[in-house]
Amino acid sequence: MPEMMVDRDGMIHFPFAGAIRASGRTPHDIEREIENRLARKAHDPQVAVRLVTNASANVTVVGEVAKNARVPLTPRGERLLDIVASAGGVKQPVGKMTIRITRGDRVVSLPLETIIHDPAQNVRLQSDDVVTALYQPFSFTSLGATGKSSEVEFEATGITLSQALGRAGGLRDDRADIRGVFIFRLEDPAALDPGVAATARRTPDGLIPVIYRVNLSDPKSFFVAQTFPIRNKDVLYVSTAPLSDFQRFVSIVSSLAFTALGLGQAIP
């Protein structure tokens, strides 16, 4: 038999069996009804019904995937990773990809690595869902007396303060003040104490500028550094030790004095 399209009324028209309701029914249910109708006209009829394509139930996949497409859903119900795979997979490293699902007016995002490692996050998709694969190399900026002042990228799954200090080259022994490690962040008001958030000054987009300070001279602070999360666009600043500027000044003066002495000896 040729393929049959379900009409707007949810019906298919099968030869000798007439109009059969297909909408909201499984292929097995449709098979049974057709067999029952044909039993009056044929001896021991056998019918096999399968869903070829589902034009009314599709998921749209866009973003950093091999092929942007509308992917039909089958009755078994595809999961999120099935749909991403059907679009050819992501084009960027898994650790730097975020998957966003848009369902009606709801938007939910998760790192792709989290979805792969946690089966509970590999949810079944529904008709008209939009899956967007985003390449988001999160980053923080390290400044001050760190091993290097630069913008440092990290994975979408996130890193801790101790990991961030390691990637920034640690603290400089000759300059860093271990009591002055600061994290500058535009914080979501929901993350703060309601009393503080109610009176704090906010940015035009509703965020609150917050400065977190860690005193690494206290051994307990290293446990804090192992659990404190670094967010995208954070600024990590390590202050300079009080004597380091004076020592640098003395070093500059000494070099100038030795240069002047050398010139005096060279010119009679």
Textual characterization of the structure:
- This protein has seven helices and 14 strands.
- The C terminus is likely disordered.
- With 268 residues, the chain is of the alpha+beta class.
- Strand 8 and strand 9 form a beta hairpin.
- 18% of the residues are buried.
- A five-stranded mixed beta sheet has the order 4-3-7-5-6. Strands 9-8-14-11-12 form a five-stranded mixed beta sheet.
- Helices cover 25% and strands 29% of the residues.
- It has three domains: 51 residues, wza like fold (2-Layer Sandwich), CATH 3.30.1950.10; 78 residues, Outer membrane lipoprotein wza domain like (Outer membrane lipoprotein wza fold like, Roll), CATH 3.10.560; 109 residues, Outer membrane lipoprotein wza fold like (Roll), CATH 3.10.560.10.
CATH architecture of the largest domain: Roll
How would you sum up the major sheet? 5 strands, mixed
Question: How far apart lie the N and C ends?
Answer: 112 Å
Quick one: how many beta strands?
Answer: 14
Class of secondary structure makeup: alpha+beta
CATH-wise, what's the superfamily of the largest domain? Outer membrane lipoprotein wza domain like
**Fold-level CATH name of the largest domain:** Outer membrane lipoprotein wza fold like
User: Average pLDDT, to the nearest integer?
Assistant: 84
Spans of at least 5 consecutive residues with low confidence? 258-268
Number of domains: 3
Q: What characteristic shape results from the CA principal axes?
A: elongated
| Strand order of the biggest β-sheet | 4-3-7-5-6
Number of DSSP helices?
7
Helix content: 25-40%
Order of helices and strands: EEHEEHEEHEEEEHEHEHEEH
Query: Which CATH class of the largest domain applies here?
Result: Alpha Beta
Strand content: 25-35%
Radius of gyration: 32 Å
